[in-house]
Amino acid sequence: MGLVEGIFPVLTLALAGYLASRSGYLQTPETMALSKFTFNLIIPCLLFVNMVHADIPDNFGVDFLLAFYLPVLCVYLIAVLLARFWLAADTNFQSVFAMATTYSNTTVVGIPLVLQTLGSEALLPLFLIIATQNLVLFSVGTVVAEREHFDVRAMLKSITRLIKQLLSSPLTASLLAGLAFNLLAIPLYQPLDTSMTLMSEAAIPCALFILGTTLHQYKVGHQIKPALIITGLKLLLLPLLMALSMLVAFDIDPLWAKTAILGAAMPVGISAYVFSIRYNTGQAAVAAASVISTLASLFPLTLVLLLVP
User: Fold this and answer.
1) What is the pLDDT of residue 222?
2) Exposure pattern of 108-128 as b/e (b: 16+ CB <10 Å)?
3) Which residues share a beta bridge with 104?
4) DSSP character string of 17-74
5) What is the DSSP letter of 90?
6) What is the distance, to the nearest Å, from the Cα of residue 285 to the centroid of all Cα atoms in its chain?
7) What is the pLDDT of residue 1?
8) Which structural domains are found in the chain, ordered by start?
């Protein structure tokens, strides 16, 4: 599929959501209900069905995940240092700031874009990122935010609570359930498979529509400086380091490598905003960066699709 044909539906559906929310046609409670339906039901159906039928590598993609998180953690460290020495921020803001520079919107933007441009074969590496991103970055973020008041028991309690939240999340649970069916070779009842596949067909348009409504809800506000720094690190430095890691440092399958680089070039994910709420700092900066990076991500995403083999 051509570049324009792949990106145009993504932009069009997101614009439709933005206009529906901006015009008042959909009120906040209605968009919230649509969001809940999408992320608690139809996207889990998509994740489960595709994971059941995925061709999982023997090493579970360990080398791929290592190649992915090495540049992510490098950018995270750079962001922490910038927030500390340039923005003179406390540890909580440092952690939130770094989270925003590294957490990619791999669900709302990632799934539709990867399907449209790279095809269903690229969904497995994307799913591996989706399944591990919260666990890795939220764990690192917790350690960074609370490092000055380090308490092993409190830290373990926070990480345990995080793992419980992940396991209770419909997105993570659907991926794990699909993985279990796949590895144990449990046959999926065909009519149920067909029903879930039919349900999952609504996931992409709904996710993109919700992305547009989210852009309307966020306000850029007065946090332009940190938001621009976040956007620059997220859309320029992270994809560059990811390309070096995937294409030079590690011997990763070309399709998987391109999926990872595309994922790195995606805008700031909503979970970074959730993390900022958890520590009650940086919400305005992360929200502004979410809007700016979403609008600006078209350029690095286009470059990745054009230049990466």
Assistant:
1) 62
2) bbbbbbbbbbbeeebbbbbbb
3) 268
4) HHHHHHTTSS-HHHHHHHHHHIIIIIHHHHHHHHHHT----TTTTHHHHHHHHHHHHH
5) -
6) 18
7) 47
8) 3-307 (1.20.1530.20)
